[in-house]
Amino acid sequence: MGCAISGSGLTPRTAESRHTEDEAPARLTPDHIQLIRESWKVIQEDIAKVGIIMFVRVMSFIEKSVARLDQLERLETLARELGRSHFRYNAPPKYYGYVGAEFICAVRPVLKDRWTPELEQAWQTLFQYVTAIMEDGYLEEERSRRSHTLTSSKQRPDKRNTAI
Fold first, then answer.
1. Cβ–Cβ < 8 Å for 150, 97
2. Got the DSSP string for the chain?
3. Are the CB atoms for 134 and 83 separated by under 8 Å?
4. pTM for this entry
5. Domain chopping of the chain, boundaries
6. Regarding the domain delimited by 45-153, which CATH topology (the fold level of the hierarchy) does it fall under?
7. pLDDT digit string (tens) for 70-95?
8. How far apart are CA 87 and CA 146, in angstroms?
9. Nearest residue to 64 via CA among 52, 53, 51, 76
10. What are the residues whose beta carbons fall under 8 Å from the beta carbon of 54, sequence distance 6 or more?
């Protein structure tokens, strides 16, 4: 569950703004389109590297999660910190659920006859569990940043009232 939109310049939404539907969708300008097409040509030249980097990040987290199944407190700490870091990467919770679904689609053919409805439910539950904790971590970081911003603005002296 790496940082899918890390460095994208997207601003994380607050918990309140995620629930509003009256926000205008982003508009792609001709300049955006040109930049994307030009950069995609470069990305395609090394698409395997990009895919491997993303794959390794996701699989590393899944491996750590499985290793912590007998120590749920450690798994929760890992997932919560990942959610907090996703706030810093500007990767909001609405994307977290896609990773589990894609993982299941990828491993189902590998496990063939071993794949059962019970096994699918177990993996789905793991991803639901982890993503819920990640979202908690994301929201904790969001609140912490908002609180810090409010606190630091209150601590600054009001220069208008400063006598010289």
1. no
2. ---TTTTS-PPPPPTTGGG---SPPP---HHHHHHHHHHHHHHHHTHHHHHHHHHHHHHHHHHHHHHTTT-HHHHHHHHHHHHHHHHHTT--GGGHHHHHHHHHHHHHHHHGGG--HHHHHHHHHHHHHHHHHHHHHHHHHHHHHHHHHHHHHHHS--GGG---
3. yes
4. 0.67
5. 45-153
6. Globin-like (1.10.490)
7. 999 999 999 999 999 999 988 999 98
8. 12
9. 76
10. 2, 4
Distance between first and last Cα of the chain? 54
Per the structure block, which two tokens stand in for 42? 């470069």
- Residue at 146: amino acid letter: R
CB 108 within 8 A of CB 100: no
The alpha carbon of 110 is separated from its chain's Cα centroid by a whole number of angstroms, namely 26
Q: What is the pLDDT of residues 112-141, one digit of tens each?
A: 999 999 999 999 999 999 999 999 999 999
Cα distances (angstroms) measured from residue 148 to each of 45, 123, 139, 152, 153: 43, 37, 14, 6, 8
Q: Looking at this protein, which amino acid is placed at residue 37?
A: R
Joined tokens for residue 68: 């912590």
